[in-house]
Amino acid sequence: MALKDLFRKKNVQDILNQVENNDGHDSLGRHLGVRDLAAFGIAAIIGAGIFSTIGKASADGGPAVIFLFLFTAIACGFAAFAYAEFASMVPVSGSAYTYSYVAFGELVAWIIGWALIMEYAIGNITVAISWSDYFTGLLDSGGIHLPQWVQMDYLTASNGYTDAMALMQGGKTFENLDAGLQAAYTAWTTAPAIGAFHFVADLPALLIIVIITCLVYRGMKESRNASNLMVVVKLCIILLVIAVGVFYVDTANWDPFAPNGASGVLKGVSAVFFAYIGFDAISTTAEECKNPQRDLPRGMMWAIIICTVLYVIIALVLTGMVSYSELNVGDPLAFVFTKLNLKWMSGIIAVSAVIAMASVLLVFQMGQPRIWMSMSRDGLLPKRFSKVHPKFKTPSYATIVTGFVVAVPALFLNLTMVTDLCSIGTLFAFVLVCAGVLVLQNKPGIPRGKFKTPYVNAKYLMTIGLIAGLALSYIYNKEGVEAFVTNTKEVNNPTTIVTSLTKEQTTQVYNSLLARDVATGNQDLESILSRYESDPAQYERLVSELPIDDSLKYESGLSLFKHKIPMWIFLISLVLLSVWAYRQNLSLIPLLGLICCLYMMAQLSVWNWIYFTAWLLIGLIIYFSFSRKNSKLNIKSIV
């Protein structure tokens, strides 16, 4: 096959004609307006972010976390402009996959389609696990206590048991372990076992996936009505939280406003971005909109604006009600009202969290089958994936497969792992959609929709911004920049050190500290080391004198550099984008969207990049073994 055939593109007009004429597939029912689309967006966005991750982000950044929400909203807004322009241009199911087919060609379209499959599947798994946590917590408060091994995933239990054993070996008692490690230890030790295998599985997560999959299978009208109802309920609860909480705000808690500076605020980038994931799922419903070219852009923008306003107000209320330092909990909204002895509000919040999670899962579970369906229509997946139910007018086979793809991993996978994988898949899609708008901006003969991103020439602005950004980074963070460039070794934190020690090494370290009167009256090694962490210089001096190998005390060389690879990719990309902007007079808004999304990708760990790359390689194997030869564009060229 010629190299150029890998990048053969679909014509916008041909796509529109194919959908209009129901070429080779049944049509979907058109039931959605602006209000419904905005509700789907709110349903997808307001979930784990406002009920969970907002707590950790507030603890890191203090009240100034509102700036992170604004920054993330602006970044998502830039990407939403690009999505809206494409959705107006190509109003069909398929989202970024279809847009990439038009802008970049078949191979890139396959890659982004494969990435979207991961995004929605992993996103569904993430939300199902979070829903299970809230649901079991609600049952606990009602006096119904499920065994730990049926409400926790296998990886969390296994890893938590290992870490708990290491910390207890270091002198920490079981009662002094954090609640998460205690639960993991209990789940692992009480679970039924066959040999070395312990049966630990998140059964409530399986339950909600089955229920939501059945609802999505039944039809768009039913999904729309359920989504709208759940959105009304959770918006009422959030407004109630704000209305009650504002009377308990103590402005003294907002001082200092940014206790950990800019680095503390930016520490929560991935968590806060996850709070915005979901608005792009609206674009998968394009064929089910009454007027997609007008309504899709409006629905996306309204969803982001409404959710941002709510996030900012909630963050201010939470950090005003209690000190930011107390908010590093899994259920911050319920926590602050419990702390203020308003337990009736905590109960209401717990119920609303269960509803909120279900609505997020509904939208995510609705988006993925439509990606499968679009790829199947193009011949890149087997034909049965494009089957539309004759009565319900939904992609029935793809919906059932999606249910299995989400349900099985949700029983066993770790929440942190799937959250980051969902984020990197989503950001990758955003990057390609923004780049697609830039590629097509000056091409003649491309049908334009009713919505077009406002044009601002980035020819000089990009280069000036890059130089200014690098200069300011060096001026205000000289030490950090030099450490990044020279790959200066970094001291490990207490938990990393303690959990990597053998029993003999633990004894040696404890005796060493005892000899210097550091460990007097305390046998908890992690606690001893943590006392000195607030003074980096003193902590590093203490660690340097421990009688263990440097590899256990420091991270250096390739082991350290690998974590900086994503940021180096980002910096190199900035230089290349500056050249591209100068030569092609690129539009500023989609360019800023691309840069913001690349930056947030760079904040994710290198392991997420490795796992994501492995997923893409699996996809390429499928493409070259099946999709390439069965592509309708390939068959058309042969005929």
From TrEMBL:
<dbReference type="Pfam" id="PF13520">
    <property type="entry name" value="AA_permease_2"/>
</dbReference>
<feature type="domain" description="Cationic amino acid transporter C-terminal">
    <location>
        <begin position="588"/>
        <end position="631"/>
    </location>
</feature>
<feature type="transmembrane region" description="Helical">
    <location>
        <begin position="608"/>
        <end position="626"/>
    </location>
</feature>
<feature type="transmembrane region" description="Helical">
    <location>
        <begin position="229"/>
        <end position="249"/>
    </location>
</feature>
<dbReference type="Pfam" id="PF13906">
    <property type="entry name" value="AA_permease_C"/>
</dbReference>
<feature type="transmembrane region" description="Helical">
    <location>
        <begin position="261"/>
        <end position="279"/>
    </location>
</feature>
<feature type="transmembrane region" description="Helical">
    <location>
        <begin position="418"/>
        <end position="440"/>
    </location>
</feature>
<feature type="transmembrane region" description="Helical">
    <location>
        <begin position="300"/>
        <end position="324"/>
    </location>
</feature>
<keyword id="KW-0812">Transmembrane</keyword>
<keyword id="KW-1133">Transmembrane helix</keyword>
<dbReference type="InterPro" id="IPR002293">
    <property type="entry name" value="AA/rel_permease1"/>
</dbReference>
<feature type="transmembrane region" description="Helical">
    <location>
        <begin position="37"/>
        <end position="58"/>
    </location>
</feature>
<feature type="transmembrane region" description="Helical">
    <location>
        <begin position="196"/>
        <end position="217"/>
    </location>
</feature>
<feature type="transmembrane region" description="Helical">
    <location>
        <begin position="565"/>
        <end position="581"/>
    </location>
</feature>
<feature type="transmembrane region" description="Helical">
    <location>
        <begin position="394"/>
        <end position="412"/>
    </location>
</feature>
<feature type="transmembrane region" description="Helical">
    <location>
        <begin position="460"/>
        <end position="476"/>
    </location>
</feature>
<dbReference type="InterPro" id="IPR029485">
    <property type="entry name" value="CAT_C"/>
</dbReference>
<dbReference type="GO" id="GO:0016020">
    <property type="term" value="C:membrane"/>
</dbReference>
<feature type="transmembrane region" description="Helical">
    <location>
        <begin position="586"/>
        <end position="602"/>
    </location>
</feature>
<dbReference type="GO" id="GO:0015171">
    <property type="term" value="F:amino acid transmembrane transporter activity"/>
</dbReference>
<keyword id="KW-0813">Transport</keyword>
<feature type="transmembrane region" description="Helical">
    <location>
        <begin position="344"/>
        <end position="364"/>
    </location>
</feature>
<protein>
    <submittedName>
        <fullName>Amino acid permease</fullName>
    </submittedName>
</protein>
<feature type="transmembrane region" description="Helical">
    <location>
        <begin position="64"/>
        <end position="84"/>
    </location>
</feature>
<keyword id="KW-0472">Membrane</keyword>
